[in-house]
Design brief:
- The complex is a heterodimer.
- Chain A has helices at 2-10, 13-31, 37-43, 53-77, 87-135, 140-157, 162-177, 194-197, 202-220, 242-264, 270-284, 287-292, 299-322, 328-339, 348-351, 353-374, 378-385, 389-408, 411-429, 435-457, 469-505; strands at 179-180, 187-188.
- Chain A is mostly helical.
- Chain A has one domain (2-135, 143-505).
- In chain A, helix 5 (87-135) runs antiparallel to helix 16 (353-374) and helix 6 (140-157) runs parallel beside helix 21 (469-505).
- Chain A starts with a helix and ends with a helix.
- The relative contact order of chain A is 0.18.
- The model of chain A is unreliable at 500-506 (pLDDT under 50).
- Chain B has two domains: 13-70; 91-171, no CATH class.
- In chain B, helix 3 (91-111) runs antiparallel to helix 4 (113-127).
- Chain B is mostly helical.
- The longest helix of chain B has 25 residues, at 46-70.
- The chains are: A mainly alpha, B mainly alpha.
- At the A-B interface, helix 7, strand 2, helix 9, helix 18 and helix 19 of A face helix 1, helix 2, helix 3, helix 4 and helix 5 of B.
């Protein structure tokens, strides 16, 4: 019944307006090429600085879902898809758009996202309080185990290069240590510099890596000339036909039930789930539909899009109940929560129940708004896609600088932003994933506290780290995940190679 | 299959130098971690243990990447929608962008945020070959004033309006 109270807050007219503003701005920024959901949340953080906690959470819920939606529009309509999180949607969606079925691809993506988002939010509403209840019983040893899994999946599993992922992870852990040690209040790596004593703010690192780093990287090899957007055909035939509905609804549901569980375990969130859903749809398709895969099969858009949104809701389960972010976007959400002194974890539902349920209620609201907003506004999204690139990246720089400055209103922070941005440039250039660094930076200090607590309780006996049955189960499942991922990786490599071959033979 | 095999044309010097940055951060960390004070009451592993672990990881992983690059396995540069993968790196544009961010930093306090933002936007647009330039300048001024109004005036984020706009009430929170 707490959910109803949440709704009573979220449905107040002012908060509805905030939700509308959040989903609108989130989608608009998410549509911008090169801007993923994590960057959307990071860039838009200054917007919420002056809001009260409930309003801020509502805006963030909107931005979180809106950013996801926006990305799929980009990958369907832009001629040059490249963002890894939406690459699977691009695989079929882009082909559909080129064949004049762009509107149908956008529609199945939007409706699929709505269906999946709603079902997944229902699952979240039921699952989160249960998990929180169980999590109250977890000790430091169990947290250490969970965080080790989060580190290894984010750092080692998800990038193209294991070593580069681990390097990014370690650097994030290092930056997280700068400042005052949580357990003993000693200064570490501050070199008596007053700016460093408070530690380096998470927002600076995230905006620097995602926004400034990306802008510099694109600027170094900018594709000049006009932007090519695939035109969206209008008219009756362009919309979802009866057959399209028939071919879409099962992938929507399958995508939901693939995406949500994957989101809840620290196994990589959206990326993995979209790929799995795509592989499943391709395998299950029969006859003529199967032949369409690689040339614009609607199942290949419907399934992964649903999986993507369901995973996004799933990621909120460990985030809200354990305080453990498993994706870069979740790490940004956690940073936003912490600015309002909201500490996600097992006690969140007890201590700040009203706020959490308002957040969850606004996820339902935001999801519905996205469905209503998205399709009629396709023309606007296309206009946004066509913004001349010099202006787009100049604007990103200004917003990044604004975000960095408004953390403490210190120009020196913009300097830190620039240093991190240059680091982000070289990381992209040499193939280092940036997400592990962001996750490690926020998870590192929590991990150290729990690790030291566990060892203190056992008089520094490292065997204690394996003393709880829960921790042992977690480590064993981690081993299984790793074995499974090697297998998946081989599948993914062959799958990504396949459409290229198709193109060559045409 | 974890890394792409390079084309022989590219010299990996930069990549090795970048991997060495990780190694040197690790080495510097290992050298300075010993001077972190340990309070006498500490009974656990103390505030030095985790720094030692993380810095060792940096050294090991960084060295591993250097070794990989020497064996010809270089990293796979990230893809992006607006990227021309075949283009050569435009170091001049990069230097200009970095220069304008530095200029922005030094303008915020004396000239005010709107001026600094307009300089950053038009400078960055110019660096990226926006044409015509006067259009970029107009956009930058409008954008800077709108942002100052929305964030400084409406949302109460205290952006310094600077000497030019000091007296205008709706630009101040």
């Amino acid at each position: 019944m707490m959910l109803l109270e949440g709704f009573s807050t979220a449905l107040q007219p002012v908060y509805l307006l905030y939700a509308l503003g959040g989903v609108f701005v989130g989608t608009a920024v998410g549509v911008l090429p090169g801007i993923g959901p994590a960057m959307t949340v990071a860039l838009l953080m200054p917007i919420t600085y002056a809001l009260d906690p409930a309003a801020a959470l509502i805006v963030f819920a909107g931005i979180y879902y809106g950013g996801m939606y926006g990305g799929s529009t980009t990958s369907i309509l832009l001629n040059t898809p490249g963002e890894s999180s939406s690459i699977v949607t691009a695989l079929e969606g882009n082909k559909m758009a080129k064949a004049g079925r762009g509107a149908a691809a956008l529609a199945t993506a939007a409706i699929g996202s709505f269906v999946a988002g709603t079902i997944a939010t229902v699952l979240l509403s039921f699952l989160a309080p249960v998990v929180a209840q169980l999590a109250v019983g977890l000790g430091p040893v169990d947290y250490v185990a969970l965080m080790v899994v989060a580190f290894l999946t984010v750092g080692a599993l998800l990038g193209a290069s294991v070593l580069r992922g681990l390097a990014s992870l370690s650097l994030g852990l290092f930056i997280g240590m700068i400042g005052i040690d949580d357990s003993t209040a000693q200064q570490r790596f501050t070199f008596d510099n007053p700016t460093l004593v408070d530690g380096i703010d998470m927002v600076l690192v995230a905006v620097g890596l995602f926004a400034l780093g990306e802008a510099l990287y694109v600027a170094s090899k900018l594709r000049h000339g006009p932007v090519e957007v695939i035109p969206v055909s209008k008219g009756k035939n362009a919309w979802l036909s009866k057959e399209d509905w028939k071919r879409s609804w099962k992938p929507w549901l399958r995508g939901t039930f693939i995406g949500f569980p994957i989101g809840t375990v620290p196994a990589g969130g959206a990326d993995v789930s979209t790929f799995l859903s795509y592989a499943a749809e391709r395998k299950l398709a029969k006859g003529r539909n199967k032949a369409e895969f690689g040339k614009g099969a609607i199942e290949g858009v419907a399934g992964p899009e649903a999986a993507n949104n369901a995973a996004a809701a799933g990621v909120l389960v460990p985030l809200l109940t354990l305080g453990i972010p498993t994706t870069a976007t979740a790490a940004m959400m956690l940073t936003a929560f912490q600015r309002y002194q909201i500490q996600p974890g097992p006690l969140l539902f007890e201590n700040q129940g009203a706020l959490v349920w308002t957040l969850i209620a606004s996820l339902y609201v935001g999801n519905l708004m996205l469905l209503v907003l998205n399709l009629p506004l396709v023309g606007l999204w296309v206009k946004i896609l066509q913004i001349p690139r010099p202006y787009l990246y100049a604007g990103i720089l200004v917003f990044a600088a604004l975000g960095a400055f408004s953390v403490n209103f210190a120009a020196a922070d913009v300097g830190i932003l620039l240093v991190v941005g240059i680091l982000g440039y070289f990381m992209r250039r040499y193939g280092y994933p940036v997400a592990p660094m962001v996750v490690a930076m926020i998870l590192g200090p929590m991990f150290e506290v729990q690790l030291r607590r566990s060892l203190q309780l056992s008089q520094n006996d490292p065997a204690a780290l394996f003393s709880s049955p829960f921790a042992v189960i977690v480590y064993v499942s981690m081993a299984l995940i790793f074995v499974g991922s090697w297998w998946l990786r081989r599948r993914q490599a062959s799958l990504e190679a396949a459409p290229v071959k198709d193109e060559l033979s045409v | 299959m974890s890394v792409q095999v390079s084309t022989p044309a590219r010299r990996p010097t930069g990549e090795i130098l970048f991997a060495l940055v990780f190694v040197s951060v690790g080495v510097a960390g290992l050298l300075t971690a010993g001077s972190i004070p340990i309070p006498p009451s500490e009974t656990g592993i103390g505030p030095r243990a985790f720094p030692y672990i993380v810095c060792s990881m940096l050294v090991i992983v960084g060295t591993g990447i250097v070794a990989q690059v020497f064996r010809g396995k270089v990293g796979q540069a990230e893809e992006s929608e607006d990227l021309d993968v075949t283009a050569k790196t435009d170091w001049v544009a990069l230097a200009k962008l970095v220069g304008f961010v530095v200029l922005h930093i030094f303008l915020i306090e004396p000239a005010g945020w709107p001026v600094a933002a307009a300089v950053l936007f038009s400078g960055a647009a110019w660096s990226l070959e926006a044409k015509p330039l006067w259009k970029a300048v107009i956009i930058s001024v409008v954008l800077a004033l709108v942002l100052q109004y929305v964030f400084g005036g409406l949302l109460g984020v205290s952006l310094p309006p600077g000497p030019l706009l000091e007296g205008v009430p709706f630009f101040n929170g």
